[in-house]
């Protein structure tokens, strides 16, 4: 293809100029990749910390507070796409008596292995082990406040005044002080018999793979559960402030990226505009020899595309390199990276593709100028 | 001999705002196939404009232009481009080679513009033409690495690449010394005899014109002389 070959020769004939533009585009693309990924990663880790260890969608009873037949609910929503973990919970307020002190707690009865998928409890237990039978897990803050240790006996006082003896099997730290202070976790069977719930639960909890699709899952489940006396909620409804904060961040990130892109487009357009003037003699003579206006405009479109592609490839590599070194060198005192990197391949490659597209777009004006150039002008102004 | 170039009542007026300059007045002119012609005139006489109109780079304000039997003054731009590529070879005073390409690539350029695939035949043709103009040794040099005479001869080879019916040369020796000028005319003659190509050479130098078979004189936009030798 002749216009492409001519474009490559033109680019090769002014190496310094070509290199400068490519570097300019590369810097733009790398900033885009770096900033975009960093902000994405920050958001991901923020969301992960906020909702990663908690259910994203919760089904509770709409009448009273007990779902008598949780098995029916779970069966009804089986097959909803995106659900990664399902668990049931029987929750009841009670008093925890340890020595002379009495603390108000929420006794949470869990199907321990299932709930572990949602809460990551096995990783949060820093002393002792998960409970079994008449055993309890107690949070770090409560344990420290009251002085509870693993293996110690405690009593749980329920609302009718009856007291039951438990052994503390372990201590957990879920990094939220109200939870660490207020939750006491026991196996679901124990809690159900403690509060005479039969096989009833107070909530069915789900985690989904895409946390931002929790509302869609909510909607789908609501439809499937229309016949049940239950209601469905999701984390997004309960965390509107966090969400609007994240949206603000996304918008500012988008603004940065748009301006970077605009700078790239203007850089390419101006350089190519100069190139058309520089190469007008060549374009004129090519047209005199019979090159069509279209072919002569293609020369500059190809120049834009090649510049954009080269800049994108280098820019993406540079951006990913920057991110990797950021993760390697920007660390917490304990050596762990400051943020966990979420490299979204689609975003990274998309940034490159957008730059190529922008480069082609930036070449349109110079290309049209080239198409309009009359060979007479060149020959007359020799 | 049939006419390869035919001009009927050609006028050319340049308008620059309110200023109207007529450069050519009712020019009737024809060149026969295979003939070797020159157009002479002082600078500003309109001879280059005439050549550009024949070469379809410029359009007449009125009148008819026929090249190789086709009327060009009403053609669209793409049609003209194709006609120039296939039937007209240009040799300009300032050579106008593409500095980014080698001599050989410059010669092949009209073939590539034609959109033809790369072929051994075309490359052999280019080599043959470079041999005819005596550039075999420097054919792979970038055109910027050649002397003025070599560049001009490259431009001649290029003009002949697509077997044009007519070669239009505008002051082709303007930048050359007398020895190179002499060589150049010998080359033109050889090519004309060998390929039967029509030559129209614009010059202001009467001694050069006298080496051609027909001299057309232009003065103030009108033909005032037409001598066949």
State the end-to-end CA separation of chain A.
29 Å
Judging from the principal axes of the Cα atoms, what is the shape of chain A? elongated
Characterize the quaternary organization of these chains.
heterodimer
Task: Report helical residue fraction of chain B.
Answer: 25-40%
Number of helices of chain A: 16
Distance between the termini of chain B: 17 Å
The ordered string of helix (H) and strand (E) elements of chain A is HHEHEEHHEEHEEHEHEHEHHHHHHH
Instruction: Please bin the fraction of helical residues of chain A.
Output: 55-70%
Order of helices and strands of chain B: EEEHEEHEHHHEHEHEE
Arrangement of strands in the largest sheet of chain B: 6-7-8-3-9-10
Mean pLDDT of chain B: 87
List segments of chain A where confidence is low: pLDDT < 50 over at least 5 consecutive residues.
Answer: none
Strand residues, percent of chain A: 15-25%
User: Any idea how many domains of chain A?
Assistant: 2
| Largest β sheet strand count, sense and barrel closure of chain A | 6 strands, mixed, barrel
| Biggest interface, residues from each chain | A-B, 26 and 30 residues
Shape of chain B: globular
Care to count the β-strands of chain A? 10
Unreliable parts of chain B = none
Q: What percent of residues of chain B are in strands?
A: 25-35%
Structural class by sheet pairing and helices of chain A: alpha+beta
SSE blueprint:
The complex is a heterodimer of chains A (382) and B (229).
Chain A: H1 2-13, H2 15-51, E1 57-61, H3 70-76, E2 83-98, E3 101-110, H4 112-119, H5 121-124, E4 125-128, E5 135-139, H6 140-146, E6 153-157, E7 163-172, H7 177-182, E8 183-187, H8 188-194, E9 203-208, H9 214-224, E10 230-234, H10 235-238, H11 240-278, H12 280-288, H13 293-329, H14 345-362, H15 364-372, H16 375-380
Helix pairs in contact in A: 1-13, 2-11, 2-13, 2-14, 11-13, 11-14, 11-15, 13-14, 13-15
Chain B: E1 3-16, E2 19-32, E3 36-40, H1 47-54, E4 62-67, E5 70-71, H2 77-87, E6 88-91, H3 103-113, H4 120-132, H5 148-160, E7 166-170, H6 178-195, E8 198-203, H7 206-209, E9 214-219, E10 222-228
Parallel strand pairs in B: 3-8, 3-9, 6-7, 7-8
Antiparallel strand pairs in B: 1-2, 1-4, 4-5, 9-10
Helix pairs in contact in B: 3-4, 3-5, 4-5
């Amino acid at each position: 293809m002749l216009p492409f070959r001519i474009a490559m020769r033109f680019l090769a004939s002014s190496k310094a100029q070509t290199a400068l533009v490519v570097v300019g585009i590369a810097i733009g693309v790398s900033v885009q990749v770096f900033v975009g990924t960093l902000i994405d990663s920050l958001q991901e880790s923020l969301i992960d910390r906020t909702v990663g260890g908690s259910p994203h969608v919760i089904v509770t009873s709409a009448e009273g507070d007990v779902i008598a037949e949780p098995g029916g609910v779970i069966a009804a929503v089986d097959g909803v796409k995106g659900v990664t973990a399902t668990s049931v919970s029987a929750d009841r307020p009670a008093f925890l008596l340890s020595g002379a002190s009495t603390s108000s707690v929420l006794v949470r009865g869990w199907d321990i292995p299932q709930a572990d998928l949602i809460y990551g409890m096995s990783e949060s237990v820093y002393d002792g082990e998960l409970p079994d039978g008449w055993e309890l897990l107690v949070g770090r803050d409560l344990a420290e406040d009251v002085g509870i240790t693993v293996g110690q006996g405690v009593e749980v006082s329920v609302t009718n005044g009856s007291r039951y003896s438990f052994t503390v099997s372990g201590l957990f730290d879920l990094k939220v002080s109200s939870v660490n202070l207020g939750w006491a976790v026991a196996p679901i069977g124990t809690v159900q018999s403690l509060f005479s719930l039969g096989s009833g639960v107070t909530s069915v909890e789900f985690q989904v793979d895409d946390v931002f699709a929790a509302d869609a899952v909510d909607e789908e489940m609501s439809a499937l559960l229309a016949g049940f006396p239950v209601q469905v909620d999701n984390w997004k409804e309960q965390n509107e402030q966090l969400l609007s904060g994240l949206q603000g961040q996304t918008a500012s990130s988008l603004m940065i990226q748009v301006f970077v892109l605009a700078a790239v487009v203007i850089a390419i357009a101006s350089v190519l505009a100069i190139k058309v003037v520089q190469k007008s003699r060549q374009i004129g003579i090519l047209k005199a020899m019979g090159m069509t206006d279209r072919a002569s405009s293609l020369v500059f479109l190809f120049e834009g595309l090649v510049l954009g592609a080269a800049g994108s490839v280098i820019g993406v590599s540079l951006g990913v390199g920057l991110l990797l070194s950021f993760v390697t060198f920007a660390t917490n005192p304990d050596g762990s990276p400051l943020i966990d990197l979420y490299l979204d391949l689609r975003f990274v490659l998309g940034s490159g593709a957008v730059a190529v597209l922008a480069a082609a777009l930036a070449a349109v004006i110079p290309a049209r100028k080239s198409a309009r150039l009359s060979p007479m002008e060149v020959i007359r102004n020799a | 001999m049939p006419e390869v170039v035919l001009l009927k009542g050609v006028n050319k007026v340049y308008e620059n705002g309110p200023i109207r300059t007529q450069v050519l007045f009712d020019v009737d002119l024809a060149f026969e196939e295979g003939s070797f012609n020159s157009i002479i005139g002082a600078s500003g006489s309109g001879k280059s404009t005439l050549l550009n109109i024949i070469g379809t780079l410029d359009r007449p304000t009125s009148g008819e232009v026929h090249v190789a039997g086709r009327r060009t003054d009403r053609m669209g731009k793409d049609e003209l481009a194709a006609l120039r590529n296939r039937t007209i070879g240009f040799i300009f005073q300032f050579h106008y080679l593409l500095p980014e390409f080698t001599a050989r690539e410059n010669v092949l350029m009209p073939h590539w513009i034609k959109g033809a695939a790369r072929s051994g035949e075309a490359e052999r043709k280019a080599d043959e033409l470079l041999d005819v103009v005596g550039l075999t040794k420097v054919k792979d040099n970038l055109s910027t690495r050649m002397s003025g005479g070599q560049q001009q001869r490259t431009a001649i080879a290029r003009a002949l690449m697509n077997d044009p019916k007519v070669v239009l040369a505008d002051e082709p020796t303007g930048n050359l010394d007398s020895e190179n000028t002499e060589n150049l005319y010998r080359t033109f003659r050889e090519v004309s005899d060998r390929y039967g190509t029509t030559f129209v050479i614009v010059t202001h130098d009467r001694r050069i014109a006298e080496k051609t078979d027909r001299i057309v004189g232009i003065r103030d936009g009108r033909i005032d002389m037409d001598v066949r030798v």
